[in-house]
Structures are given as structure tokens and as C-alpha cells.
Specification:
Number of helices: 5
Strand order of the largest sheet: 1-3-2
Order of helices and strands: HHEHHEEH
Radius of gyration: 15 Å
Number of strands: 3
Low-confidence stretches: 1-18
Helix content: 40-55%
Oligomer: single chain
């Protein structure tokens, strides 16, 4: 991929944020379920995105201002880019309050990802 090309993750609808898939050991994933979950895992496969997601998930009160989580070793525009990718994948929600944006882990996302990887049937 050249530097001028931009890879786009699919924007997931909010309805798939909840549990979408049976546990991986319960049977073969459908094409649609595989695409939904792959987009979420792909968004988390970048170390900066994973750190940002972790900072939001572990922040007191369950939400974090971008001003509190931006110290991940990259510039502010890069932080904004990564947060946008996490939102597009359905992993984070955001709300603008004045000049700041506050982020929360989307409802049921962690539970859905965990349930899909559960090897117990």
C-alpha cells in the first residue's frame, strides 16, 4: 500500500455492538458475523489504538476526555485519527462537550468480543 492510499475500515451500525456472534467453538461463523467481528479486532490490532481503547475502558467514571488520554506517544492529529477508527469500528462512542470530546466504550462491545472467543460450549 502506498503512502497516498488510505485503508478504510467499514463503519459498523450500532445494532451490532451487542453480542452478534455465537462462541467460536459453537460452530462456524457466518460471513456477516466474521466481517463484523474482524472489523472490531482489526481496529484493535494497532498498538496505539489498543492503548487508547484501554485508557478509555479503564478511566474512572467509564468515560474519558480526549485531553486525558492523548499521551500515547503520537501527535494529537494522530490520536484523533486513531480515535476516529475506533469509533468507526463500533468500539467507542463520543460526545462533544464544549471544546472537548468525551469517549466511552460502546455498550456490550467487550462482552461481545469476549463471548465470541469463549472456547466453552
Amino acid at each position: 500500500m502506498s503512502k497516498s492510499e488510505v485503508a478504510q475500515l467499514p463503519v459498523l451500525e450500532s445494532e451490532i455492538v451487542g453480542p452478534c456472534c455465537p462462541p467460536i467453538a459453537a460452530g462456524e461463523l457466518s460471513q456477516a458475523d466474521a466481517e463484523k467481528m474482524a472489523a472490531m479486532f482489526k481496529a484493535l490490532s494497532d498498538p496505539v489504538r489498543l492503548r487508547l481503547f484501554s485508557k478509555v475502558a479503564s478511566h474512572p467514571g467509564g468515560e474519558a476526555c480526549v485531553c486525558d488520554i492523548a499521551d500515547v506517544g503520537v501527535s494529537q492529529p494522530t490520536v484523533s485519527h486513531h480515535l476516529k477508527k475506533l469509533r468507526e469500528a463500533g468500539l467507542l462512542t463520543s460526545e462533544r462537550r464544549g471544546t472537548w470530546v468525551y469517549y466511552q466504550v460502546a455498550p456490550s462491545v467487550v462482552a461481545a468480543m469476549s463471548a465470541m472467543l469463549d472456547l466453552r460450549t
